[in-house]
Amino acid sequence: MLGRWIVKFLINAAALAVAAWAVTGIKYDGLGALLAMALVFGIVNAFIKPVIKVLSCPLVLLTLGLFTFVINALMLLLAWFLASKIGIGFHVETFGAAFWGALVVSIVSFILSLLLPSEKRRHEE
Question: What is the pTM for the complete model shown?
């Protein structure tokens, strides 16, 4: 269980690194800042994102799920805001950068997660 959490944390860090590389307006000050931001982003996604998704459910339904992209961008902005308050050198300059960065993070995380063995397959072995 802890090993799986660490792998997800590293996937998150890799996805944030790709977003910083691919999106103008997202940058970080070094590996330590990247890893710290991955931790903050993971905590925000674990505890705050589910509440926001429930509260915004009517908007998500009304927009046929497209509002989920806005929620992801807001979670990245919130994680950056919290990280900046504790001195983590990760920067997201605009909402547009957060939007595209969150999209990149989602895609990279999804692709890297596909490389992990599923829980079902692990129990069958």
Answer: 0.88
